[in-house]
Structures
1.
Amino acid sequence: MLTEAADFKAECDGLHALLQDRDDADFERPTLFKDWTVNDVMGHLHIWNHAVNLSVTDEGAFEAFVQAFRDAGSRHFPYTHEWSGGLKGQALLAAWHGLCTDMEPLWRGLDPERRVKWVGPPMTVRMSIVARQMETWSHGQEVFDVFGAARQDEDRIRNIAELGVRTFGFTFANRGIERPAVKPFVRLTAPSGAVWSWNEESGTDYVAGPATDFCQVVTQTRNIADVGLEVRGDAATRWMEIAQCFAGGPNDPPPPGARHAVV
């Protein structure tokens, strides 16, 4: 059973709870992420949930979808809006959450190690749904921020932290930079108070602190200067300055102080 499917659904439920009583006008509010509106965020999450679902149900339809999206080029927001039938506000929220709800039982029954196509390199089913949880969590952050709401994370963010650790090498390779020879020790405190750790223990090259803060850095929802992580050593410092756990070309983290809850 693919337990990560339930983690994805729970992440979606948390974002849905934040938005379910909002007026449609609230969905037009620009966030601190590239001025995307809440409608932009939800449309983006919805269309790529659709895409990942196609990757496990209809490979040909998935390939056709990706080609059409690429053909849209810089028109990706108009294309997304057209694809959804012009949905906005509460109607868009309902469609997005309905698909999330349908995905959970389907994905729960899939072989976690089955490899499926994606926009980048193929991934296992397990990593595909973890990537959707990560995307929901990271883009959800700008939505929580714009409403000045504090998100109460749960230990399911371990999936995101694991993804962050696993993409250490990718962070450097994606920029054409030689990866440091040392993999920093990572020691994080979970929302529950549990302690998670990765890589060989080290007192000279490590990242330590709250798991939420680590996830914010690797998803680039916060700059390393704006969180409470303890970072020591050359490899750890270089990594946290440019960490990127999501696919695509190299992206720079937000400048210090640029991403925060709006008050």
Note: Residues 157-242 form a domain with the Nonspecific Lipid-transfer Protein; Chain A fold (CATH 3.30.1050).
2.
Amino acid sequence: MVGRGEEFLPDYHERGEPVTLKHEEGMNMKKVSLITGLVFAIVFLFSLNFSQAASETIRITCWEGYADATIVKEFKDLVKTKHKIDVEVKTYYPTDQDEFFKAAKEGTADLISPPADLAKTPRFYCFNEGKYLLSELDMNNIPNAKNMLPFFAADKSLIYKDKRYGLPYNCGPYGLDYNTEVVKEAPKSWNIFWDSKYKGKYTINNNFHKCNIWITALALGYKYDQIFDIDKLDRKKVQEKLNVLAQNAKSLWDGSANPDEFPQLALATDWGFAAAQANKKGGKWLIAAPKEGGTAWIDYWCVTQAAKGQKKKLCEEWINLQLSPKSQAAVVKNQGVSPVVNNVGNLATPTEKTLFHVGDNDYFKTVAIWQVMSEKTEKAFGEMWEAAKKLRKK
């Protein structure tokens, strides 16, 4: 029985020529075409996957100035060179710490820069069983952490069950800034805010009201081990003094003080940022060291649960970059606060090193780092500040 593809065999026999199986040739050609098509398909699919893997978006909720254009460009260039990934950085600047908690809870940010005490504060708690809002850091991806000052390396704020969920980035005071063109000698006490000649000539914070209660208590003679607990304070006495502080302020600021207002002021409370910006515009502001001491915050970088896999690794790359000597020197120069590492070296001037305690591990032992307070204390402080604000003239 003659099969398909064998109908021309007799002609070949008659001519005495060798038999050529054209059917097999056709099949081979089809196989080659099929294999070629499969190769092209695999290459195409691989290229699609590669193109998808070669781009990423990192969403950052942080205080303004922590993700400026310079550091974002450096990060993008680093990721492109090291990981062969085009990364887009989207930033959002909050004015209140509750926005860090919200971003972590709702998954709208991959990286956040909260103050150290936030994650364990009752109303912002990030470690409820089965619902952790932060991701444990892979320290292998953050080698610059080895250069942290011992004071910051030992801070337990973002350690939970012996695992690390964040790293310190910078540290600064709720500071007493003074305009040297108006206040000729450095203030020696927080009580300068209650000096009648400075009425209407200073600005204080509004949305971190607890800081105002702390400095009021310090001005009254309370100590560090008392100011974080309402049960250790005479509430009526503190309220009376707090009322005057709020009434006599020229303005109240949210987020960060307004450096454009500084030329009109003699005094200010500040994280350090506004004074640094005011000085860049010709101001002559310094930070005093009140005899009663003061409080200081540590801001952390944390990765939220929204960042998984490659994205989490890139977030850790961001943290590592922020702990580099160059970036930590920028903390001093651009933010007017203290770096957390010991290897800034000559990237900061001798004056900057003295003013912002660069590498001075012992200094940080002399300030009261913000502490987690009880719900009772948080509630009382909120009520006290609202009562004080109501006395301000509209």
Note: Residues 175-293+373-389 form a domain with the D-Maltodextrin-Binding Protein; domain 2 fold (CATH 3.40.190.10).
3.
Amino acid sequence: MIVVFDAQCLLCNGWVQFLLRHDRQGVVRFASIQGATGKGLLAEAGLKVDGLQTLLVVDGARSWQNTSAILRVLDALGWPWRLALGAWLVPTPLRDMLYRWVARNRYRFFGRTETCAIPPPDYAERFLD
């Protein structure tokens, strides 16, 4: 499973740090939208880097965006994070409406960095170019 994230977004970097701490099985890998792998995965999903307002999760030939991507990753983390699957009961348009609002305002609310974060040495092999 690959999480494609915005490496300049501090909220996104916080999400990656959360996943690194809680993914005990090491099933999640990461690709930034600023890197070649991330750009390629976005293109395959029909998405563009400019103005991107979604998280993309790719697992084999399947991909998910927005809240579905978050729920998919939390499911992969196992217990207790799998409990988040109860959010599937909320209609997707409602979940994604809130998600898109946060995504549009992520730099204003959480900030951004002009340089991409360097992965911690212990996890460097999980980050794709």
Note: Residues 2-128 form one domain.
4.
Amino acid sequence: MVAAGMAAPRVIAVDLGGTKLLTGVLDEEGVIVKRTVRPTALGSQEELLAQVESAIQELREEGVGAIGVGIPSTIDQQRGCAVSSVNIPLADLDFRDHLTKRFELPAAIENDANAAALAEHRFGAGRGTRHMVMLTLGTGIGGGLILDGELYRGAQGAAGELGHITLDLDGPPCQGTCPGRGHLEALASGTATNHMAAEVAAERPDGDLGRALAAGKTVDARLAVDLASVGPGDARDLLERVGFVLGNGIASLVNVFNPELVVIGGGFARAGNLLLDPARKVVAERALLPARELVRIVPALLGPEAGLVGAGLVGFEAMSAASV
């Protein structure tokens, strides 16, 4: 409770993605009071850090008590370190201490998909659940686990890299700095769908994707979703194939974690049931009993704001820890 005459505490939240950088000021109810968005600076780690610091400074105001950051990186929470990142130039950085010293505020970092899972569990599709899996579909595929009502971080904070489960031992190389092959991310992310859409357009000039290419349009996952929403064609077939792959990945997660709910978020999740219906079908056929009868696969409710809201929750955790 806030004492009379005192403003409710707020935090600065940062959702650092491979495509865009979202920043905002949040209150304890998860309400975004102010927000900014800009393309992510990917030239170097120094350039990226400078951009993040500038965005934080722009939102710094009286009443802000902490900083929370969600990043698409493996995290060592013991050291507050961003260990490695697949889609941004960030590695071996003591990010938490760097921000604390730079702004003289408590700071916390979290994997971006973990942050989104926190937000959906607290304020979104996962409210009331005890066991929840979240997948964020975008440039890559992130993951977050809520087990027995708590975010599962693992021994060091690096758990939840669900996009890097292997589906095909001889599949395509994974993205960025990941050394794996045939990972879910390499087969069902927005980036993977970009490549597949371009291939289909080139191979089938008379199809809807091929005609779009001939008309000079950029053929990518976004266009595939738009065309698939109109009616049957190559674009819809493509999304059904991607949904099939996604469903196989989800089935494995259902078998391992037996969740009540799987929440699908991220920018590519705008495809909705074009992806989720084939995924649900696979899970119903291939996941084990009784887990497949319990689990529901649903879209995220917070949309593109989930990562930002989750970063804010992490900031409030840092504020609480600093006050003890």
Note: The chain has a mean pLDDT of 92.
